[in-house]
Structures are given as structure tokens and as C-alpha cells.
Amino acid sequence: MSKPVLTGQQIGLLGGPLYTTYKVLGAIHYSDTIGGTPVYWLETNDADFNEINAIHFLDKENCLKTLTWDIDSKGFSCGYIEVDKALRSLFDTFFSSIKQTVHTDALRTMVLSCYTEGINLGDAALTFARKLFGWSAIRVFDPSGDDFLDAVRSILEAEAVFTETGSQCNLFCIDGKKREAVFKKKDGFSFRDGREIDLDDFKLTPNVNTRSVCQDAYFKTHTYIAGPGEVKYLAGLDPVYIRHSIKKPEIKKRMSVELIEPRTNRLLKQCVLSISDVLSSPKDILVKKMVEREAGCDYNELRRTALEQTDDYIQKLGSLGLETSELHTMLADKIKTITGKKRSLEKTKLGNLLIKTKELSDRLLPFGRKQERIFTILYFMNQYGGIDFMRWLYDHYNINNQILEIQYD
User: Fold this and answer.
1) Which residues in 139-150 are b (16+ Cβ under 10 Å) and which e?
2) Residue 188: which H helix or E strand, with range?
3) Which residues lie closer than 8 Å to 35 by C-beta, 6 or more apart?
């Protein structure tokens, strides 16, 4: 394999959030640039089910929605959880809830053909990823296979020996459909629950501190495409690479952009807001700023000033020996009531503008987080070209851009 360019991410429903797509496109793009071979490490051994069991999107009414696959994962590695009727029903609900386009039926058929009832989620995610990126030369790799686990076993065994007594080892044992943390004891190893074990009786898989080393030993990675958090994390793994005499690959950042839809641009113009305006404030603060901008008044500041002046007035009356406690309470309540009513009236008058403002926040900063950490690529594929949208996104891949306007028919 010439100049392997890797990226990796744990499995997620419908390909996971957008940043996963950006990482994979980054591996394809950079490998094309240097004449390398792109590889997508699809992590199936991760066991944090609550991180991957939901889909977030804008429905046909442009409302932010969440669908959750609410099952008992039994602590299984996510790749071993079986696709069930509930998950397929969730996907049906997703496709029924989004705007119906010429691409909707084809995408629904593709998804349901990958996520068939009874198969492991890892196999479903692998098949789905291959369909998403089938237009490219990328290899989608499942690290749960015996070839890989056999190849890196010596690294993990050496890590176990290196571990200080009483500490957790940088590996897991695969116990049925679960991965179990391993702890070094004075005379051997044990699971978290205290069961003593012999490592020879189990398949071993890397943990977060050894995944990269094992990956790079196996592939002889030329370049790894990483998110901003990964860049910092990988910088701290030099001692592990040195310990196992593994060459550390070049690390390059992935693209990180806000996708700006045509409707988003229209809303920005109607609300007289910039993209940075929306991204700089949570939704409730953005709405508050809009009310103040349109009303020409900061009602919180008005209330604060009025209360301060009332306090001064009451203190002067008190200095004359007058009983002022009831008067103070009455005036303070009156000020809060009057300013509150005035603010409510302004919000009512600005109702349509505030609805648009909230939608802008949902589009660009959903749930107060970056768009790339919330939305799935399927939402955009449905709107703007199906599988062809993935190729369009690749053609516009640029790590220096932070904004990408969708101009796709």
C-alpha cells in the first residue's frame, strides 16, 4: 500500500456527525494530492452507545429534531449491537420527517438495505460507509478482524508488561460482545470486577492510548487526518511510539466548515444578521439581542437602573424615620412587572423575526454546538443531490475555509 493516508472515527448512525464525513473526505483529498492510499478506520469496538444512538436534523417545517435509538446496549461494543425493528423504524421516521425531494426515496432504500434487521451495527455501518464513499478509492477498515488483532497482539502484550502494578493497561480484552478493561496486579491481571484472567485466553484490542500506535504499526501510516482535539491528543503519544519503535505519521487537520444553505442566506438577510452574529451567541442570548436591537432598549439594564434608583429613594425616606419595607417591595415588584410586560409586548410584535432568528441558530449552532457535531450528512444529501452531494463536498474541500455556501442544484 503506497503512502497510506488514514483517518478514523467510532461508528455512528447514518455515518455519524458531519465532522466524520470531513475527516474521511480529508483522507481521500490528501491521498489524491500525494498519490497515496486513503483508509477509513471505522472503530467498532467503542462501547459508548449514548454517544452514537441519536440523529439530529431539521424537519420539513425547519424545526430542529432529535430521534434516539433508545435500547439497552447491555454494555456491548457498539459494533456488536444488533440492528432491530426499532432502529429501522427510527430511520423510516427520519425520512418521513425531512423535506421530501427527488433524492429521498433512493436514500431511504440505500439506508435500509445497509441496516437490515439482525445484523451487527458494525457490519451495517461498514456497508453504509462503503456506499457513501464508493465513488472514491478509500478502503473502509474494521479493526475487529482477526488479521489486525493478531498483527498487533505483541504490541498490546508489551504494553501490559510495561503497565505499573495497580494501574489499568492500555488495552481491552474482548469478552464475548463486550470489551473489558484490564488491570495489572502483582501476580497477573484482572478485570474491573476483580476476576483474575490470563491474557492468553482472550483477543486483545487497543484502547485510546494504543489505537494510534497499533494502527500505524499495521498500516505504516504516512499521514493521519485528525480533528483539532485529536491533534493535541496525538502530540502526547510520542512516548508510546518510542517505546514500541513505531514511526509516528505526519498529522494534518481536517476541514471544519459551516455549511450555509440558500435558505440560511435568505434568513440572514431578512434578520440583518451575519454568520458570526449567530455563531457567537447561544439561541436565547441571540433572541435577547434581537429584541434589544429592534426595541432600542436593554430591558435588563433598564430594570437594574430603575431598581438602583428606587433603592436610593427608599434609603432617603428611611433616613427620615419612615417605615419603607412594604413600599420597597411594592415598587420593586411594579418595576419588574412593567418592564417584563413591555419586553413581552416587544417579543410579540417581533414574533416572525424572532422565529427566523431561532431557526438561524438551529441551522448554524444547533443545541449551542457546532453544526458539524450535530447534523448528519444525510440531511444535506437529501436536499442537495443525493450521493452526488458527497462528491460536490469533496470538490470543495479546503481546510482553510470556515464557511462553505451550498450552491448545488
Assistant:
1) bbbbbbeeebbe
2) strand 188-191
3) 2, 3
What is the C-alpha separation between 61 and 348, in angstroms, rounded? Answer: 21
How far apart, in whole angstroms, are the C-alpha atoms of residue 217 and residue 215? 6
- The pLDDT of residue 409 is 53
Question: Which amino acid does the sequence have at 12?
Answer: G
The C-alpha atoms of residue 223 and residue 216 are separated, in whole angstroms, by 9
Cα 56 from Cα 94, distance rounded (Å): 9
Element of type H or E holding 307: helix 299-319
Residues in the chain: 409
In this structure, of 85-89, 160-164, 254-258, 314-318, the range with the lowest mean pLDDT score is 314-318
In 4-61, the DSSP E strands lie at: 4-10, 37-43, 54-58
The single-letter code of the amino acid at 168 is Q
Q: Say if residue 295's pLDDT is above 90.
A: no
Closest CA to 382 of 56, 39, 102, 175: 102
**Distance (Å, rounded) from C-alpha 362 to C-alpha 278?**
10
Instruction: Report how far residue 380's alpha carbon sits from residue 382's, in angstroms, rounded to the nearest whole number.
Output: 5
Check whether 297 has a pLDDT greater than 70.
Answer: no
Q: By C-alpha distance, which of 83, 42, 86, 45 is closest to 176?
A: 45
User: C-alpha cell of 240?
Assistant: 508510546
CA distances from 320 to 286, 308, 310, 323, 324 (A): 45, 19, 16, 9, 10
Give the span between the Cα atoms of 317 and 314, in whole angstroms.
Answer: 5
Bridge partner list, 42? 9
Name residue 241's amino acid: Y
CA gap 189, 192 in Å, rounded: 10
The contacts of residue 110 (CB under 8 Å, 6+ apart) are 128, 131
In tens, the pLDDT along 102-152 reads 999 999 999 999 999 999 999 999 999 999 999 999 999 999 999 999 999
Read off the C-alpha cell for 187: 501476580
Q: Using CA atoms, how far apart are residues 91 and 113, in angstroms rounded to an integer?
A: 11
**Environment class of 102 (CB within 10 Å of its CB; exposed 0-12, middle 13-18, buried 19+):** exposed
Q: Grid coordinates representing 219?
A: 498500516
What is the sign, positive or negative, of the torsion defined by CA atoms of 94, 96, 98, 100?
A: positive
